[in-house]
Design brief:
With 211 residues, this protein is of the alpha/beta class. It has six helices and ten strands. The protein has a single domain, classed as DHBP synthase (Alpha-Beta Complex), CATH 3.90.870.10. Helix content is 27%, strand content 20%. A hairpin with a 6-residue loop joins strand 2 and strand 3.
C-alpha cells in the first residue's frame, strides 16, 4: 500500500518530504510531481528498484531513463558536457526539458543506454521535487508516468494512487501537474560539431534552445 504525502506546492512540509526521502533510501519507488507531469522515481544505485521501475512502465533497457538533478553542477557529475553543450543547458534549466548526453562512469551501466552509453538528464523547475532532491542528497532515476499501453502522461495524484498503490511505495501530492511530458533533446551530436536533435516536442518551448 503506497504512502500518501499531501504537501503544499510552494512550501512543502519538510516532515513529509523527509518521510518520502526515507522511502527512496529503502529502495521504494515514488510518484513525484514535476514541472511537466508526474514521474516515477527511485534511488539510482538500487538495482532492484530500477528493474521494478522498468516493469511498471513496461519498457526495456533501450528506453532512456532520466536522472533528476538539483542543478547543473550535479548534472555534470553524471554526463560529459563540453562548453557548447553547457551554454545550451544553462539557457534552459531549470525547466521542462530532458537532455540526452554521454554518461560518465558515475552512472551505473545498467541504467544508461546499452549501445549509445547515453543517459537522459534534467533539472526540473518544481519546488517540491527540488526540496526532495536536496533531502535525498543526490540525483534520482526517473521515468515519465505514462501507464503501459497509453500515450498520455498522468498528472493527478489521486488517480495515480488508485492505479499504482500496490506497485509503488509512495505518492507525493502537490496538486495537479501539467499533463504534457518534457521536451527531449539529444545533445550528443554537438560533441562532434553537429546540431542538437529534438527527439520529442513536449512542454518545453524550443526558443530558449535556439532551435
Amino acid at each position: 500500500m503506497a504512502q500518501y504525502f499531501e504537501v503544499h506546492p510552494d512550501n512543502p512540509q519538510q516532515r513529509l518530504l523527509k518521510q518520502a526521502a526515507a522511502l527512496l533510501a529503502r529502495g521504494e519507488i515514488i510518484a513525484v510531481p514535476t514541472d511537466s507531469s508526474y514521474a516515477l522515481a527511485c534511488h539510482l544505485d538500487d538495482k532492484d528498484a530500477v528493474e521494478r521501475l522498468r516493469r511498471i512502465r513496461q519498457v526495456d533497457e533501450k528506453h532512456h531513463l532520466t536522472l533528476l538533478c538539483r542543478d547543473l553542477s550535479e548534472l555534470a557529475n553524471y554526463a560529459k558536457v563540453d562548453n557548447k553543450q553547457y551554454r545550451l543547458l544553462k539557457s534552459a534549466t531549470p525547466g521542462p526539458y530532458t537532455f540526452l548526453l554521454e554518461a560518465t562512469k558515475e552512472v551505473p551501466r545498467r541504467v544508461s543506454h546499452p549501445q549509445r552509453k547515453t543517459i537522459g538528464l534534467r533539472v526540473p523547475d518544481h519546488a517540491v521535487l527540488s526540496e526532495l532532491l536536496s533531502l535525498h542528497g543526490e540525483a534520482l532515476l526517473a521515468t515519465t508516468l505514462i501507464p503501459p499501453g497509453e500515450t498520455e502522461a498522468m498528472n493527478d495524484a489521486q488517480e495515480i494512487r488508485e492505479r499504482f498503490e500496490k506497485l509503488i511505495g509512495g505518492v507525493i501530492d502537490a496538486g495537479a501537474c501539467p499533463s504534457e511530458p518534457t521536451t527531449v533533446v539529444d545533445l550528443t551530436p554537438m560533441g562532434d560539431g553537429g546540431d542538437p536533435v529534438v527527439i520529442r516536442q513536449g512542454r518545453g518551448p524550443l526558443g530558449p534552445l535556439g532551435l
